[in-house]
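Quick review question:
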């Protein structure tokens, strides 16, 4: 459902309806993309809100709500907003990790264990993997996060990133190799 503050910023009913469709379709995707960049739930929510505010000026340019071009356009907007947020913090774009990053991976995976000891051991392994993921270059980290924690297919990630499925496949392969190299026998 479209937030009231956003609905009030739109003049016509047609534009409000279109924005509501866009919001319902892409809000969660944009949140995940922002979270993969910012590693902070509140900043990710701010980035999503900023994206939809910027989108108000471009509603006339959007034809179909559910199409790869619209999805790509929105992802590009939120990526730029996230990069600007990172730049404003330190004067330059940088990759940084917040402790909550580990929690993202833990929360994204279902807990198949009822035994507390098994759950603790599994969580420990996930934390090790999350720490290894946090050291990856930003591009690889975002791709593997969308794939492993976000549940997106390689094809969907390719559409989001605006590149080929083979490129995404290679990024995931490189990310896995770097994680295995870092963890060694700990897996």
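Suggested answer, residue by residue:
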């Amino acid at each position: 459902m479209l937030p009231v503050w956003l609905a009030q910023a739109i003049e016509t009913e047609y534009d409000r309806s279109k924005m509501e469709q866009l919001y319902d379709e892409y809000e969660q995707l944009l949140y995940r993309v922002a979270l993969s960049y910012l590693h902070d739930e509140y900043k990710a929510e701010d980035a999503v809100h900023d994206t939809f505010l910027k989108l108000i000026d471009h509603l006339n340019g959007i034809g179909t709500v559910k199409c790869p071009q619209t999805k790509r356009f929105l992802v590009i907007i939120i990526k730029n907003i996230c990069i600007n947020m990172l730049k404003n913090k330190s004067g330059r774009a940088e990759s940084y990790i917040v402790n909550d990053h580990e929690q993202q991976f833990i929360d994204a995976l279902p807990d198949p264990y009822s035994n507390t000891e098994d759950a603790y051991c599994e969580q420990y392994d996930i934390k090790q993997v999350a720490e290894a993921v946090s050291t990856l270059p930003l591009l690889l980290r975002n791709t593997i996060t969308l794939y492993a924690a976000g549940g997106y297919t390689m094809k969907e990630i390719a559409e989001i990133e605006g590149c080929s499925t083979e490129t995404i496949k290679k990024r995931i392969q490189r990310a896995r190799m770097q994680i295995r190299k870092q963890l060694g026998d700990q897996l």
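Why it works: The first helix runs from residue 4 to 8. Confidence is low (pLDDT under 50) at residues 90-124.
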